[in-house]
Design a protein that fits this description.
Blueprint (H helix, E strand, L loop, with lengths): L3 E8 L22 H16 L1 E7 L3 H14 L6 H9 L1 E5 L11 E4 L3 H10 L4 E4 L3 H9 L5 E7 L16 E8 L5 E7 L1
Parallel strand pairs: 1-5, 1-6, 2-3, 2-5, 3-4
Antiparallel strand pairs: 6-8, 7-8
Helix pairs in contact: 1-3, 2-3
Length: 192
């Protein structure tokens, strides 16, 4: 059975986005350490390479697909290009109650019951499934106990208020933790 893996960045005070979905706080201001950047990109590309399908919520999809397809198609010198190419080439399933078609490469729309659709995807042959967000979509997946592995990147910034992916108590087991020189910490958790 395929696993559903979540990769998400959160603030040190536990928010996945600002109150209105802002994510500008994820960018470390000042000089970026190229070594740290390569490690973070390498992790993201390795995780994406182990998956063949990306799950997305409708709200974040246009910006997400537009950004990664632009990097993949037009920015070969961008350090994020290898990850962008994987994302652009992967099958993407967008969950929506209102849309039936969304533009983008390898994009499908799923209008059915979330838990039923995810369980069917997990039972299909292939590599694992990956979800990046948005906050409300991931919160639904978390509440339904559909996430098998959590890869949470904690940023060294507090934003004071925002959107959380956790709506109730969840007990998770820490499997690994990597601290980067720029203050970000990558934690891998699995449900208990």
């Amino acid at each position: 059975m395929r696993k559903l893996k979540l990769q998400m960045q959160i603030s040190i005070d536990g928010f996945a986005a600002g109150p209105n979905g802002e994510n500008d706080w994820m960018i470390i201001h000042g000089k970026q350490d190229p070594e740290v950047l390569q490690k973070i990109i390498g992790f993201g590309a390795e995780l994406a390479a182990g998956c063949d399908t990306i799950l997305l919520g409708r709200k974040m999809t246009p910006g997400f697909i537009g950004h990664w397809e632009n990097v993949a198609d037009n920015q070969q010198d961008n350090p994020w290009h290898p990850l962008a190419q994987l994302i652009a080439d992967h099958r993407k399933i967008v969950f929506s109650h209102t849309e039936t078609s969304i533009p983008g490469r390898n994009v499908e729309v799923e209008n059915g019951d979330l838990a039923t659709a995810i369980q069917a995807l997990k039972n299909q042959p292939g590599k694992d499934l990956l979800v990046y967000g948005g906050a409300s979509f991931v919160s639904s997946l978390v509440s339904l106990n559909l996430i098998d592995e959590y890869y949470i990147i904690v940023n060294p910034v507090a934003i004071g208020a925002g959107l959380s992916i956790f709506k109730e108590r969840k007990i998770l087991k820490l499997e690994s933790s990597v601290a980067y020189k720029n203050g970000k910490v990558l934690n891998k958790y699995v449900p208990v």
